[in-house]
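1st attempt posting a full record on here, be nice pls
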Amino acid sequence: MSETLTMLLNRRSVRLFEQKPIPPEKKELVLQAIHRSPTGGNMMLYSVIEVENEANKAKLAETCDNQPFIAKSPWVMLFLADYQRWWDYFTYSKVFEKCKEQNIEMRKPETGDLMLAISDALIAAQTAVVAADSVGLGSCYIGDIMEKYEIHKEMFKLPRYVFPIAMLCIGKPLESELTRKTSPRFPREYVIHQDVYRPLQKDEITAFEAPLVKRFHPDCNFREGIDNYAQQVFFKKYNAAFSYELNRSVKEILKNWA
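the predicted structure (as tokens):
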């Protein structure tokens, strides 16, 4: 099996890093890989902010659901869905005037444009993850960057058509992180479908949840008042305060975009 596949199949999130700077040559390789990421129509509808300011990293540790390890991460990057660069480019290139000349309505970026930009940004982020692993670095996705939109907008001077979709914390993993087991997944037959989507059936629930229950709740030791794994996830994640904040924040982003 190739080194790339071995790396992908053994990849895990890393939250404990050696507290030393990442060698510039490794950073450069990761940045080169990001720059060569697949992108819709070669438009590169994403931007990346490297967060070097320690005060900003400490603030992100607070705003991104109170995760202290963010502040201690050697390398923090924000991945942004970005249509602002093209909007500015259109403006400078007198596209609006050309539309008026040809009696064509000049539309503003819409939801579909946002979705495409999000795809570009997430592809770039995953490319960074793979590149970082290939040079001996570990990483952790932080989806909480979508929360607290107003705060993050001000922190990073984000213009109208820029959406912070993901953040990565990267560094050299501590030895203890390298020996942890990889997280289990739902069985593949419930994730990979052939030709058409196949909904989960009630009589498949036991087989469906078995790997995760075995790893995280082998004695069915759910929180008090909870009967099963689905209820555990619902109240711990889906119905948690951070999920409500996530949805509020994204609605604000969409309102600002539209």
